[in-house]
Amino acid sequence: MTATRSDGTGARRAGAAATEFDLTAHWRERARGREGWDNAPALVRDLSTRFTATVAEAIERAGGVPGRTETEFVTATWYGTSHVAEVMHEQLREAGPKWLDPEQFLHYSPHAMVSAAALDLGLGGASATLVGPDAEFQAVAHAVRRIRSGRAATVVVAEYEALTPFAAAPCPDGPGTAAGAPPEGRATALVLTAGGGRGPFLTVHRSGEGEGEGEGDGADAPAGRAGTTVRTAGPGLLRLLADAAEPLVVVSRAAGLRDALVLG
């Protein structure tokens, strides 16, 4: 690996952490219907606590982040939790008056995970949450571009997933959905920094752009390097980048794109 490269064209993976957790208890509550509604917010409180702890661990492994109030934070999720959507769906199917617990709306937005973690950990830079099947790829690419352009010195990139039955039912090919069993919840965080350090180097190669600073050749040039593993982006990309110890090219799954992340 080119562990000593620091030419300003990308970002370094300075620290990483990941966790998985069992969703069986939460799925059991959902199966109780109305009788389980009072315990519904516990899912998101549990996830928020675990997500924040994972980000904190990644920061610790990075040796901390200089200037926490300027550190940026971008998070990706495929489905989030579908927590509020599921409760609304169940309650609207019930006979009688319709109601929703106001506490549900505290966790309505997928961005609530980032907000809670940023407040708890004192990360004061710009933040964003991306949603969808290419979200992890785009979150990493966004972070690398922020660092490469000099707009940020450190960006925390994270992802989370905690599918409810409502989200998992129509998506049997979704992340972690084993037939007949609750999927595992998960959270991953990477700390990306500019300049020196010992972590592997991440660059973004984009198709259809002018040459310069690693851009313009899309995935084709880096994918052609001998001995380099090429993967297609999907759920669990951040975990792949967190664990990777060899050169790796990850191609965006977005239709018509040959954008690539290169770790090496």
Record the SSE blueprint.
Blueprint: E1 11-22, H1 24-31, H2 41-61, E2 72-77, H3 83-93, H4 112-121, E3 127-131, H5 135-148, E4 154-161, H6 165-168, E5 184-193, E6 201-205, E7 207-212, E8 215-217, H7 220-223, E9 229-232, H8 237-243, E10 248-251, E11 260-263
Parallel strand pairs: 2-3, 2-4, 9-10
Antiparallel strand pairs: 1-5, 1-6, 4-5, 6-11, 7-8, 10-11
Helix pairs in contact: 2-4
Summarize the structure.
The chain has 264 residues and is of the alpha/beta class. It has helices at 24-31, 41-61, 83-93, 112-121, 135-148, 165-168, 220-223, 237-243; strands spanning 11-22, 72-77, 127-131, 154-161, 184-193, 201-205, 207-212, 215-217, 229-232, 248-251, 260-263.
Description:
- With 264 residues, this protein is α/β, with parallel strands linked by helices.
- Helices cover 30% and strands 25% of the residues.
- The protein has 8 helices and 11 strands.
- The protein has helices spanning 24-31, 41-61, 83-93, 112-121, 135-148, 165-168, 220-223, 237-243, and strands spanning 11-22, 72-77, 127-131, 154-161, 184-193, 201-205, 207-212, 215-217, 229-232, 248-251, 260-263.
- A 9-stranded mixed β-sheet has the order 3-2-4-5-1-6-11-10-9, with helices on both faces. Strands 7-8 form a two-stranded antiparallel sheet.
- The longest helix has 21 residues, at 41-61.
- It is globular.
Rg calculated over all Cα atoms: 19 Å
**Structural class, from secondary structure content?**
alpha/beta
Would you identify the regions where 5 or more consecutive residues have pLDDT less than 50?
1-8, 209-215
Query: Quick check: average pLDDT?
Result: 79
